[in-house]
Amino acid sequence: MSGARTIRIGTRASALALWQAREVAARIAAQSGAPGVELVHIRTSGDLQTEVPLWQTRGQAFFTREIDRALLEREVDVAVHSLKDLPTVLESGLTLAALLPRADPRDALLSRNGLSLAQLPARPRIGTSSLRRRAFLARLRPDAALLELRGNVPTRIDRLQRGEFDAIVLAAAGVSRLGLAQHVSEHLAPEVFPPAVSQGVIGICARSDDAETIRWLAALDDGAARLAATAERALLRHLEGGCQVPLGALASVHEGTLTLMASVCALDGRRQLSAQSRAPATAAEAPALGIRVAQELLAAGAAELMEKERAARAVEPP
Fold it and tell me: Distances from the Cα of 8 to the Cαs of 103, 239, 263, in angstroms?
């Protein structure tokens, strides 16, 4: 079937979100007989909420909710997300139709003088908007002043270069996708600075009943990214209880084996719990692996650690 219709892709309007949406559009268009593709810009609550740090705000899906709502209301046909922003339980009527091949999952440190995290001077000012990054930074550099950092990737780098921070931490994949990798001072090792669940993966959602659109998206799905993300998201779903948690995790596929490592860290960095396990790299085993590692963390005391952190940063409702 050739271009009898146009597939409308819902996306945020940031430079990185547009890069991701255009990448999906190009991969659809590369298929024989593909329909036309149109990008539809949608503003999200995460774009509008800039006064209060997101990690202090109740709820989830700050960067995805409005796009998924437009998808359900048939204003768009496809939603493109950074998978790390997407809740582990999708809204009824939606399906995660495809995951693109994973880019570098690591976090990157960008510093004004090209210094690594260990080389930064005493009491460095480090910018991040992530609860997870704050926790692991506090563990590795307890002397650091951790400052709130919002805005798109170019804006954050500009603020670093203006001297507002000594260093900032961003997802390596986003920096690279925007052609800004020359600003990276250090890639942080996942063993000591585990990335966000699904970091580096682009997720593509469609309506569950839209078989025609799903047909074009299914060809884009990457098997290794699907297995890793399934394990990581099952882990997070088993742990989170609807709130953001200071959790880092990374799954990888090698020679038929799926390995998942994960750590939960106190916000002050003083306590860290870690677990790791392996399973055959199959669709049936991936979610079970995530649950098994989550249960190991819970048995080690992760629930109590996370509850303590939630209580410490509780926000009074308006």
Answer: 25, 34, 38
Pull the structure tokens for residue 148. Answer: 């709130």
Cα 6 to the center of its chain, rounded Å: 28
How many other CB atoms are found less than 10 A from the CB of residue 182? 7
Distances from the Cα of 83 to the Cα of 3, 49, 129, 233, angstroms: 28, 20, 17, 10
Q: Which of 47, 68, 77, 85 is catalytic?
A: 85
CA 70, CA 21: separation in Å to the nearest integer?
15
**Residue showing tokens 């700050």:** 62
Q: Is 85 a catalytic residue?
A: yes
Report pLDDT digits (tens) over 65-88: 899 999 999 999 999 999 999 999
Please name the CATH architecture into which domain 107-188 falls: 3-Layer(aba) Sandwich (3.40)
CB-CB contact of 200 with 101 (8 Å): no
On whether the pTM is more than 0.85, the answer is: yes
- Return d(Cα 38, Cα 268) in angstroms, integer: 45
Of the options 2.60.40.10, 3.40.190.10, 3.30.530.20, 3.40.50.1000, the CATH number for the domain spanning 1-102+201-221:
3.40.190.10
Token pair 């799903």 in the structure block, residue: 214
Going by the DSSP 8-state scheme, the letter that residue 82 receives in this structure is E
In 3D space, the residue among 132, 108, 150, 152 whose CA is nearest the CA of residue 240 turns out to be 132
* Residue 103 token pair: 């880019």
Specify the CATH number for 223-318; select among 3.30.230.10, 3.40.605.10, 3.30.160.40, 3.30.70.1150: 3.30.160.40
Helix (H, G, I), strand (E, B) or coil at 147: strand
243 falls in which pLDDT band (50, 70, 90)? Answer: low
